[in-house]
Amino acid sequence: MTQVNTVRGPVDGSALGATLMHEHIFVLSPEIEKTAEEWDEEAEQAGAVAKLQELKRQGIDTLVDLTVIGLGRYIPRIKAIADLVPDINIVVATGVYTYNEIPMFFHFRGPGTVMGGSEPMVEMSIREIREGIADTGVRAGILKCATDQPGVTPGVERVLRAVAQAHRATGLPITTHTPRPPEPWGLEQQRIFKEEGVDLSRVVIGHSGGTVNTDYHLELIENGSFIGFDHFGMSGITLEDRVDAVVRLCDRGYAERIVLSHDAMCFVDWFPRSMMAALRDWRWTYISTDVLPVMRERGVSESDIERMLVKNPRTILEGGEPY
């Protein structure tokens, strides 16, 4: 069996079960985390534990936390939470999240910079995959990068290429962020990855479900990648329209290229708590409680549901042939 890195250590791919491929536990701004508003570390961790326990009760076995540098990743906190929920797997990511400039730590290091040398983002990701993140011993199980409305800026392109190179060195899959609506950035991501020699079947173009444009979805799939319908519960597109977009692809036999998720979190400091509390459908359990019943009503088969929630994530995270 191929092993997959999780917070509590490697597990067999067969143990992943039903998997949400694009979520977060906490998204924070570390410099202002404890100054912008009241922060109770013990209470926040307890809240995350309760939500993970409920997620398990709703039939989900693995959560992929795509919180990387730029989103306030702090692995000791995630490790403490994971230790209290031993019956659910948490896979964490390496990479950099930016819509424009790279973090200043990397700005003066690397090819073409004042200090020169090799690309530190590649070295960092390889180290976090092979040895662990900082001194936690927790090894990343997936690579993450982003493109948003500013497009492929020089900083964004540097991150995409660094992630591609780390992928080639380690074999770990890549998953991405794209804006709403995502066209054409998923295609641009594929172009850059292909230039770097990435096998596009090892890539998930995230937030592809931010549009219901089936032609766009088909182009991404035909180029070889998986696509993420991973904004379930968000406003902007109705549940029915999101499901209908999935149905159109399943009817064409493309369930084997879709993964499902919410891109939700226990807490994000980008928005007021009152606003987050009002978004009652944007939660980790929404697919289990609301989306799957509608998919079944629309004629999505149990085998296709299993494919999108169980088999495809296993294929992606293991790096093997489709099951």
Question: How would you characterize the overall build of this protein?
Answer:
- With 323 residues, the chain is an alpha/beta fold.
- It has a single domain (3-318), classed as Alpha-Beta Barrel (TIM Barrel).
- Helix content is 39%, strand content 13%.
- The chain contains eleven helices and twelve strands.
- The protein has helices at 41-57, 75-84, 104-107, 120-130, 154-170, 185-195, 214-222, 239-251, 273-278, 286-297, 302-318, and strands at residues 3-4, 11-12, 19-23, 26-27, 62-65, 89-95, 142-146, 174-177, 203-205, 226-229, 258-260, 267-268.
- An eight-stranded parallel beta sheet has the order 3-5-6-7-8-9-10-11, sandwiched between helices. The chain has a two-stranded antiparallel sheet with strand order 1-2. Strands 4-12 form a two-stranded parallel sheet.
- Helix 6 links the parallel strand 8 (174-177) and strand 9 (203-205).
- Helix 1 (41-57) packs across helix 2 (75-84).
- The chain is globular, with a radius of gyration of 18 Å.
- The relative contact order is 0.15.
- The model has no long low-confidence stretch (mean pLDDT 94).
In short:
With about 325 residues, the protein is an alpha/beta fold. Helix content is about 40%, strand content about 15%.
Radius of gyration: 18 Å
CATH fold-level label = TIM Barrel
Beta percentage is 5-15%
- Please name the fourth-level CATH homologous superfamily: Metal-dependent hydrolases
Poorly predicted parts: none
Class from helix and strand fractions: alpha/beta
Number of domains as seen in the coordinates:
1
**SSE run:** EEEEHEHEHHEHEHEHEHEEHHH
Question: What is the molecular shape?
Answer: globular
